[in-house]
Model the fold of this input.
Amino acid sequence: MKFDDKESGHHEGESVLADQLKQTVRVYCFILTTPDAKDKKAVHVKATWAQRFNGFEFISSENDPSLPALKAVEKESRSVLWQKTIFGMKNAYRKHFENFDFFMKADDDTYVIVENLRLLLSKLNPQDPIILGRHFKVSRL
Done:
């Protein structure tokens, strides 16, 4: 058996459900990045898991059609992460609300198994308001 042997039966038929869910559970993702992280992170996110979403855009401090990235802030710093997130949410609402069922915020150091996400979301009603995530405790320095 060869590793690239499509007739091996390994995971046979699994893509059928994934393909069906991609049509019925439409998910858009906006991904926070920086110009400095383009070649180290963002291009690899785009080449792997981002393309499995029905739509995605990067949010940065520079427009970059090759990703595509949208300019949300003037300068990069940790203090503008919230501004970039709000920009991403507003952009998703204004440009994409009618074309997608669910919306996700990610970072350029995130890894998403989009098919598993879709399977989880397929059990939810996209008309119901819901936020999924994890609350992190923040300590003061």
User: Anything to note?
Assistant: The first helix runs from residue 14 to 24. The helical segments are 14-24, 38-47, 81-96, 114-121. Residues 16-121 form one domain. Strands lie at 27-32, 55-60, 69-71, 102-107.
